[in-house]
Amino acid sequence: MKGLPLTLWIGAALSAVFALAALVSFLWTPHPVDGMMIASRLQAPSPAHWFGTDHFGRDILSMIMVGARTSIAVAVIAVGMGMALGVPLGLIAAANRGGLVDEIIMRGNDLVFAFPALVIAILITAVFGPSAVNAIIAIGIFNTPVFARVTRGGALSLWTLDYIRAAEVAGKGPARISVEHILPNIANLLIVQGTIQFSLGILAEAALSYIGLGAQPPTPSWGRMLAEAQTMISIAPHMAIIPGLAIVLTVLGLNLMGDGLRDVLDPRVRRAR
């Protein structure tokens, strides 16, 4: 703990604030998120409403808290989906390095990379309609080739090592070697990449909600809060500033935490230090 980098501490603190806000929102919010008080609409931040109110008189702090759990839930599930699909594909590709299976998997990854998460979301919602579930599927599909590439790259550097050759001589098959020897030794890479993809998932969810493809009303979403604020920015700038800062600080915290974890978990960085 003594030698942990400052970036890790700052990133963890910022991330913890929003995670705590999301957890608290399940039990308590300053005001009901669906409570419309027309008489209190467009109020600036005050003791009654710390972050002000929106054009329907809803409390922005309450919406930020509930929106945090929406963003976090979408990002966590989407990253988990990407890891669940991408890591096995990367291990299989590395185990069949240079072979037909490796080529098929990596060319499939290239095909998915040709379609950004936003385009995938548009295709999915055109068929099934806009929702948080479809946003999760779109972001998860985009995350899959990312984890497949990271897994394959880390695994390829291990397949040539002596202890892997010893495991092969001992009669272990590629699947067993991948699970018992390769995966534990690239876990640090996957943890760091997962943190980075988590921050990108927050951004992707906000972007999809901004254009109406993410979580639908009445579920609060930071992206949709920004979309609703764009016509009010001259008379109620806090409507755009508050959710914008929430997105920026959350993504900043996760990126700083990812950098800190890389410094701690990457052996090359540890040796340089």
Quickly describe the structure.
The chain is mainly α and 273 residues long. It contains 11 helices and no strands. It has helices spanning 6-25, 60-95, 100-113, 117-128, 132-159, 162-169, 174-185, 187-210, 222-229, 238-265, 267-272.
Overview of the structural elements:
There is one protein chain. The protein has 273 residues and is an all-alpha fold. It has one domain (6-26, 72-272): MetI-like (MetI-like fold). The chain contains 11 helices and no strands. It has helices at 6-25, 60-95, 100-113, 117-128, 132-159, 162-169, 174-185, 187-210, 222-229, 238-265, 267-272. Helix 5 (132-159) crosses helix 7 and helix 8 packs parallel to helix 9 (222-229).
Secondary-structure element order, N to C: HHHHHHHHHHH
- Distance from first to last alpha carbon: 15 Å
Query: How many separate domains?
Result: 1
Low-confidence sequence ranges: none
CATH superfamily: MetI-like
| Shape-level CATH architecture | Orthogonal Bundle
Principal-axes shape call: elongated
CATH topology: MetI-like fold
Largest sheet: none
Helix content: over 70%
Which class best fits the helix and strand makeup? mainly alpha
